[in-house]
Structure formats: structure tokens, C-alpha cells
Specification:
Strand content: over 45%
Radius of gyration: 22 Å
Shape: extended
Number of domains: 1
CATH class: Mainly Beta
CATH topology: Pnp Oxidase, Chain A
Distance between the termini: 60 Å
Helix content: under 10%
Length: about 190
């Protein structure tokens, strides 16, 4: 007898919150509007036994998931995120909080290799609107790379952060948790 399985279908909408979590700090921001991911796979080669044009055996190729390549779009300039994803240096004003200057890593030096987790919160939506629950998608063992700069007349500047998530062997490339609230550390200084 065939078993009919009930599906838990969760309509998700919006990028409600993104957090970059390093070993020393959490960087929460609500200014991202798009995150894309592409699975990175090491493709195996099929093994075919072919003698005088006749196939006698064929062994199926096994593919191995290595992780994900992510692109995180953020609609404001944030030097602190540039530091985490590509490295460099920030010079602050005398108050110690206002950025005076950001310097990218010097030519000939590697970008930052600091590891972090990328957390993305999306609203779970029901027939009457937002349910109050969120889907938390976590990508482990991430590193950033050089961030391209793009400017266009009549449009606000935005960053596109290229991120690689390459978890160690035996670790899931991402997890999805259902949570009942956003974390309490979601206040941006720009929200004040």
C-alpha cells in the first residue's frame, strides 16, 4: 500500500533580516533585498567499459555537493560589512563611531579570509498575511571576496557581496529553521 504524505507548504516572502555572524561579532542589517544562491557541485565521471565499439558495462557517476556560491545585495554602503567580507581598514572620527575613511586591502595582499555564518530571515505568510513566524536559512563556513563597486546616475548605490559557503565534510550546506521572532539584535544604527 502506498503512503500518502502530508506536505508542509510554507509560503515565504521578503528578506526581513540578514545577519553575518563571526566568532567575535554579529552584524545585523535590514537593508538587503535579494540573496541568490548557486549550488557548487564536483561532478563525477562515468566509467564505461567499451570494447570494440560495444558497451559491456557503465558505472553511474556520483556528484558531490561542495557548498554554495551566494550573492548578497545590500542597498546601502556599509564599511563594516566590507571589512568582514573583503578585509581592509576603517578610520573613524574622534568619536570612535563615525566612519571617516575605508581602505580596501592593498594590491598584492589577499582579501579577508575570516569565516562567518550567513543568516537570512524570511517571513512565513498565510492566507491572512504574515504569520509572525520566520524561516531562518543559515549558510555555514562562509568567506567573502573582493566586492565590486557600481555607480549609476539617478540610482542609489548598492553593494553586491560575493560569498562562498564551503562547509566541512559531513556538515549540511544549509539549514532552515522556523522561528517565532527575529533576534533582538536587529536594530541598525540607521534605524534610530
Amino acid at each position: 500500500m502506498t503512503t500518502i504524505k502530508k506536505l508542509n507548504q510554507l509560503p515565504l516572502s521578503d528578506v526581513c533580516l540578514v545577519r553575518i555572524v563571526t566568532k567575535d561579532a554579529i552584524y545585523p542589517f535590514k537593508t538587503s533585498d535579494e540573496i541568490s544562491s548557486e549550488q557548487v557541485v564536483s561532478e563525477g565521471e562515468e566509467q564505461t567499459l567499451k570494447i570494440k565499439g560495444v558497451i559491456y558495462a557503465n558505472r553511474e557517476a556520483k556528484n558531490t555537493v561542495l557548498g554554495y556560491d551566494l550573492t548578497l545585495n545590500d542597498n546601502v554602503m556599509c564599511p563594516e560589512l566590507l571589512i568582514v567580507t573583503q578585509g581592509g581598514k576603517i578610520t573613524y572620527d574622534t568619536d570612535g563611531t563615525t566612519v571617516k575613511k575605508y581602505e580596501a586591502p592593498p594590491v598584492g595582499e589577499n582579501t579577508s579570509t575570516e569565516k562567518f555564518e550567513l543568516e537570512v530571515y524570511s517571513s512565513v505568510v498565510g492566507t491572512e498575511g504574515d504569520t509572525g513566524q520566520y524561516a531562518l536559512v543559515t549558510f555555514p563556513n562562509c568567506t567573502g571576496s573582493s566586492v565590486p563597486l557600481t555607480f549609476k546616475d539617478g540610482e542609489y548605490y548598492s553593494n553586491s557581496y560575493p560569498i562562498k559557503s564551503r562547509p566541512p565534510r559531513g556538515v549540511s550546506p544549509f539549514t532552515i529553521d522556523l522561528v517565532d521572532a527575529l533576534p533582538e539584535d536587529t536594530v541598525n544604527t540607521t534605524d534610530a
